[in-house]
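User: Can you predict the 3D structure for this chain?
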Amino acid sequence: MPEVRFQITWPDNSQDSCYSPSLIVKEYFAPDTEYDLVDFVERSRTALNIASDRVKAKYGFPCGLALGQLQEIEVKAAKFSEIAHPKVKVIKFNN
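Assistant: Here is the predicted structure, written as structure tokens:
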């Protein structure tokens, strides 16, 4: 399966490189685009669960890396929940 990493900037201007085992994330995010924090988390949840399900369909087990990435996103996003209008920017995709 083609995997992809996507570079993001959090509301505090820190950056992370996120992993997906599938290119499905390219259907949910666009490079150089800001998303409301809640929207970013929801899109991440949808895309990474689909990616994990694709791995399960092909190999018989879900993708622990995709589910782990989702958990990391959810934990980090919770840190910004008190900020007014938090945004996450998807900078680019790294194949």
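The two ends are 12 Å apart (CA to CA). Residues 24 and 50 are 7 Å apart (CA to CA).
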